[in-house]
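Input record, target 12 of the design panel.
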């Protein structure tokens, strides 16, 4: 005969299995079945606390039969697997909820926000403040710094003959010799200078550096719903309903999501003069430099480390002339790229409706570059320039 301790342990394990079954399937049972199952487990727990050895032994002898007449018990490894699946389902739901409601990953494809945030760009080997190295295995450069080695020199003089795409690389021929460089055809054509009209001399270096991927960051989607947006914030928004300068939707031209710096709030009157942005808030009479509203603009106007201020141009729809004014309409925002010379922004296509806002750039989580961590945290570059030279691949 089992000791009282072993009897209680056996009964306790059985009741644990019964409780799990109730928890899993109670929504499938009738009220009468659920009440009977709960009464059975409650009576069993009470018996374990107050019953004698004979009473517990009698309960143990018939508990499986009694409970099986209500519902078949689930116990052992099947119950554990089922419980873990429930836990994983909850964890997955929470993770997707966080992504949907609070944090959303975003990959920057272009150079419109450089040098604050980088899109896909080519960097010459040995450039300062760039962590990838020719002495590091390429797989490690890719893992840590999102950088692919790009190295090619002309073997035989001649002209460019064919260019084809092969996965993530571009294959081309010059005078019958084949070369391969990382990146899409358009990007390789830009950084390697693949002009079909050009005659390539022998030993001409087409590329000796790295094609670096864009920064991956998390966009914080919640706070602006409660506190609003501020001038100087880096904001991600969708391009639904926005039309480019050529009359085509921005979503078709260069993607559904854009990232820019918020330059003007609803009611602000803006102008660009001498490379600087000036703002006159609604209800005021005087223009003030954007730096008086946010220190984030100071580095943009510094002229250091790749920053060159904001540019005018006759091809622009808004703020094209020096001193030209534009007033931001209600429920809209005026957005500018930090890399003003290569940024397709509100100067070209107008303002962003409030309903298009996704959230604020929060943290760069990859690659492990100087920009890793909180976005827009860099100070004004030193006069010598603390940021590496860069070559943006395209405008956005």
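The sequence produced for target 12 reads:
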């Amino acid at each position: 005969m089992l000791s009282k301790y072993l009897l209680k342990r056996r009964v306790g394990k059985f009741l644990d299995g019964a409780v799990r079954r109730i928890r899993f399937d109670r929504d499938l049972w009738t009220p009468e079945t659920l009440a009977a199952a709960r009464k059975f487990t409650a009576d069993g727990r009470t018996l374990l606390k107050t019953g004698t050895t004979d009473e517990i032994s009698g309960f143990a002898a018939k508990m499986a039969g009694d409970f099986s007449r209500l519902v078949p018990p689930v116990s052992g490894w099947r119950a554990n697997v089922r419980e873990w699946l429930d836990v994983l389902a909850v964890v997955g739901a929470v993770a997707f909820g966080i992504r949907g409601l609070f944090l959303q990953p975003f990959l920057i494809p272009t150079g419109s926000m450089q040098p604050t945030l980088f899109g896909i760009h080519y960097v010459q080997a040995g450039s300062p403040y760039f962590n990838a190295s020719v002495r590091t295995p390429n797989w490690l450069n890719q893992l840590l710094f999102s950088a692919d080695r790009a190295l090619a020199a002309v073997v035989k003089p001649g002209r460019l003959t064919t260019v084809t795409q092969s996965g993530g690389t571009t294959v081309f021929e010059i005078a019958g010799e084949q070369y391969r460089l990382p990146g899409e055809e358009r990007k390789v054509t830009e950084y390697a200078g693949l002009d079909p009209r050009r005659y390539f001399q022998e030993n001409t270096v087409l590329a000796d550096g790295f094609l670096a991927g864009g920064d991956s960051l998390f966009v914080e989607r919640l706070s602006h719903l409660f506190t609003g947006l501020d001038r100087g914030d880096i904001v991600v928004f969708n391009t639904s309903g926005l039309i480019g300068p050529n009359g085509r939707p921005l979503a078709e031209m260069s993607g559904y999501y854009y990232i820019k710096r918020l330059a003007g709030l609803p009611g602000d009157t803006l102008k660009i003069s001498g490379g600087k942005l000036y703002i006159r808030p609604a209800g005021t009479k005087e223009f003030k430099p954007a730096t008086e509203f946010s220190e984030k603009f100071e580095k943009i106007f510094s002229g250091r480390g790749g920053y060159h201020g904001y540019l005018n141009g006759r091809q622009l729809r808004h703020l094209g002339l020096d001193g030209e004014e534009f007033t931001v309409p209600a429920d809209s925002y005026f957005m500018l790229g930090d890399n003003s010379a290569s940024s397709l922004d509100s100067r070209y296509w107008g303002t962003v409706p409030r309903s298009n806002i996704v959230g604020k750039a929060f943290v760069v989580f990859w690659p492990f570059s100087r920009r890793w961590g909180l976005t827009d945290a860099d100070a004004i570059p030193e006069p010598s320039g603390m940021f590496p030279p860069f070559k943006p691949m395209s405008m956005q």
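DSSP finds ten helices and 20 strands in the chain.
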